[in-house]
Structures are given as C-alpha cells and as structure tokens.
C-alpha cells in the first residue's frame, strides 16, 4: 500500500506542477513495480489521472486560473480528435508522424524555455489576458480546434494531452503558464473519464490498485498545483519546457 500511495504521490506532484495528467509516470511505474501489461497499466492510470486532475483543478480554480467553458469546449474537440485518431491509427505511418511531432515538441520546448529565461531576466514576452482572441473565427471554434489537434495526436501517438495542449495555449494563444496548465487539466478530465470507462468495460482497470494509488495522487495533485501557483511563471515555464524536450527526445528515439 505504501508503494502504491508513493507512486500516486509522485505522479500527482508531477501532474499538478506541470499541468499534465501524470500518466507518463504512472504507466511505467505500474509496469515496473507491479508487472502490469501495457493495456492494464494504461487503463488503471486513466482512473488515477482522473482522481489527480480533480484535486489539481480545484486548487487551480481557487487561484482563478480556470475558464470552465473554455475547458469544456477543448474537451469536446479532444474527444472528437481522439475518435479520428483511433480510426486512422492503422492507416498512417506513425513513425514519420512521430518524428515530425518530436521536432514540434523540441521547437516548442526550446521556445518556451527561452521565454521562461526571458521572463526571469525582465525581457518582454508576449502574454495574453487569459482569453482567446477574436480572430477570423469565434473563440469557441479556436478552442474546439485546439482540442481536436490535442485529441488526435494523443490518440495517434500515445502521448498525454497536456504535452500538446499547454504549448498550444501558451505559444499560439499567449495564455499565462499557470492558466494554460489549469485549463489543460480541466479539459483532460472528461477525456480521461471516457477512456477509463472504455478500459473498465474491457477489464483493464485494477480497482484496488487504482484506489490506493489515487489516494497519493490526490494529495500529490494538491501539492503540485499549489507549487505551480506559487512558482515564478518564468521558472514554471522552464520546468515545463524541460519536460517537453525530454518527451521529444524519447519520441525521436522510439523505434516502433
């Protein structure tokens, strides 16, 4: 039980701090420590991610970093994108797409890292007010489009939605780092629930393990999101950028 709670605590802190689901830590931990197969680890991790996201979203909400309507619109797009990705996953050369996506992640990570460095040293970095600008189409279309891209890439490449969503919100729409992370976590909740329900029906969710890991994940989510809200935006952006660059390297090195 202590090991399970510790896995949850570590994943919760990471997920809450960087606005990620925490699955990048939970899945390998379940495979390594509990000898779960990949499907069972993924299904169980979705239940844990959902629990962690709830506690993190509440904490981000207390600091007024979440636009609930925007998160819902992104989530709707995410579900659509995930369905599209699932339909064509066997009809596209994922290796080529993965390499291209790793280049995007590398560029995004370097850009966010430089922006974070600039913020720490007083440089002028474009940061918006936390609202989607009225461009050639209305804000809802932009939000849903962001969700579609996120869900599509997540489904096709097996990456967490936050790795895609947060850079899009900060780089393309100039959301402040903390708000982008809070919105990302909120938008991932219905997507995680949908995936968890599907895996539960298939018998891929270990309820006892999910229960104990979630205890630590909920506590870790509060700790991680509290740290994120207290951190200097520049340092937080650099921390997220480092994780994105690491993900880019892992994806580029993946052989299959």
Care to describe what's here?
The longest helix has 27 residues, at 94-120. This protein has 256 residues and is an all-alpha fold. The model has no long low-confidence stretch (mean pLDDT 84). The protein starts with a helix and ends with a helix. The chain contains 10 helices and no strands. Helix 6 packs antiparallel against helix 7 (161-172). It has one domain. It has helices at residues 2-18, 23-34, 38-62, 68-88, 94-120, 139-157, 161-172, 177-201, 207-230, 233-253.
Write the layout of secondary structure elements.
Elements: H1 2-18, H2 23-34, H3 38-62, H4 68-88, H5 94-120, H6 139-157, H7 161-172, H8 177-201, H9 207-230, H10 233-253
Helix pairs in contact: 1-2, 1-3, 1-9, 2-3, 3-8, 3-9, 4-6, 4-8, 5-7, 5-10, 6-7, 7-8
Which descriptors apply to this entry?
globular, 79% helix, mainly alpha, 256 residues
Our count of domains comes out at 1
Radius of gyration: 17 Å
| Residue-averaged pLDDT | 84
Would you count the extended β strands for me?
0
Please give a quick description of this structure.
This protein is an all-alpha fold. It is built from ten helices and no strands.
């Amino acid at each position: 039980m202590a090991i399970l709670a510790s896995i949850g605590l570590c994943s919760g802190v990471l997920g809450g701090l960087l606005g990620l689901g925490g699955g990048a830590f939970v899945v390998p931990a379940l495979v390594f420590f509990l000898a779960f197969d990949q499907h069972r680890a993924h299904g169980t991790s979705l239940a844990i991610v959902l629990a962690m996201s709830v506690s993190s979203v509440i904490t981000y909400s207390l600091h007024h970093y979440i636009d609930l309507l925007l998160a819902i619109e992104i989530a709707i797009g995410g579900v659509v994108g995930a369905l599209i990705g699932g339909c064509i996953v066997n009809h596209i050369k994922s290796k080529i797409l993965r390499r291209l996506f790793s280049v995007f992640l590398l560029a995004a990570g370097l850009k966010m890292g430089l922006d974070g460095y600039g913020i720490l040293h007083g440089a002028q970095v474009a940061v918006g007010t936390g609202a989607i600008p009225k461009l050639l189409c209305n804000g809802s279309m932009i939000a849903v489009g962001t969700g579609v891209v996120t869900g599509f890439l997540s489904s096709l490449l097996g990456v967490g939605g936050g790795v895609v969503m947060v850079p899009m919100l900060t780089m393309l729409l100039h959301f402040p780092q903390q708000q982008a992370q809070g919105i990302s976590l909120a938008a991932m909740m219905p997507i995680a629930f949908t995936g968890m329900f599907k895996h539960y029906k298939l018998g891929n969710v270990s309820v006892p393990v999910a229960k104990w890991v979630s205890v630590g994940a909920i506590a870790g989510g509060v700790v991680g999101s509290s740290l994120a809200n207290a951190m200097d935006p520049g340092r937080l952006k650099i921390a997220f950028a480092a994780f994105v660059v690491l993900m880019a390297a892992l994806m580029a090195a993946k052989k299959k």
